[in-house]
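My main concern about presentation is that the manuscript never shows what a single data entry looks like. For the editor and my fellow referees, an illustration may be useful. For illustration, here is how one protein appears when written out as sequence plus structure tokens:

***
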Amino acid sequence: MTRSKQRWLPAVVISVVAALAAAFGSVQAGAAASLPSKTVDEILAMMASTEVREFSGTVEQSAALGLPELPATGPAPGAVSAMELLAGTHTARVFVDGPSKARLQILDRMAERDLVINGRDAWFYNSADNSAVHLRAPLPAGPGDLTSKDLPMPEAMASRFLAAIDDSTEVSVGDSTSVAGRSAYRLSLNPRSNATLVDSVAIDVDAETGLPLGVQVRAKGQDDPAYSLAFTDVDLSTPDPSLFDFTPPPDSAVTEKEVPAKPAPAMTAPATPQDAPEPNRPRPTTSGEGWDTVIAYPAGSAPAELSANPQLSQALEPVPGGRALTTSLLSVLILDDGRVYAGMVPLERLQSAAAAL
């Protein structure tokens, strides 16, 4: 699978998987702000050159995809936590100090979950069952800190969509707006395809710094965003360093895990292609182009949790040859032989792709 096609893996799903255990909420946009006119290229240049590396604030996510809201799960990543982010509204406090220090405080109804990244250490804590997972990266020859760049914040999600812009997308400048009390330019991405479920994507960009403040994704036939992710308040000063130090409560259950070390490449060995799959991970293939792309994983790829977890069965409907997840923005087909198909297209498109193999 080429990198140009890999980037079309639905941005919502990528953002969810990268979350590890995070959950976020809906765009809070105010009345249109009066800003100097800028072209698409000028706004993209602002985003590319933003120097915002330290900030704190509240982030909210809202997903109205037509799925039942699943209960919150523990801090460890997994299919359930990913499904959780595709339904309902979630709020979190976020603190970032450079690429290797971040703290997310995910506010559940009756509990709090925390993700703390500090250099080579990451902590996942769930107050509901007083459990913690400590993840530590190995000492490498070069820089090896864990990174906060893929956390599900507006900047990461906007980058996913912008990296996928090609001839299948019309990009324009919409009306200026206000997000988290800050004036913002709005970039509008409109698929030129009639086959995709996506109607448009709006990215709100801070007029002063170029930092993406919010992302809205609209589905065809719907007036309100099907998915939105945005700051409701933001402070661009450096957070207190103590926020990135975490000590689990004395009576908590702590699980220790190590990040596997990446083997150093031999000097005489050919370079590994960037698109090569990780060990033991099935290689996906694609069909279609742009917004119509279908990602296909081979037989045996479906996680065992999909069959064993009763919570997930709420969202899966039986279809000929397997089960399917259908939403207003995303469809996933899981066949009985473990093949998995996904795309921002109707279920029929996935079934056609599966039948062609």
Summary: Confidence is low (pLDDT under 50) at residues 1-30, 72-80, 264-279. The two ends are 16 Å apart (CA to CA). The helical segments are 3-6, 11-18, 40-48, 79-84, 154-163, 305-308, 310-313, 347-355.
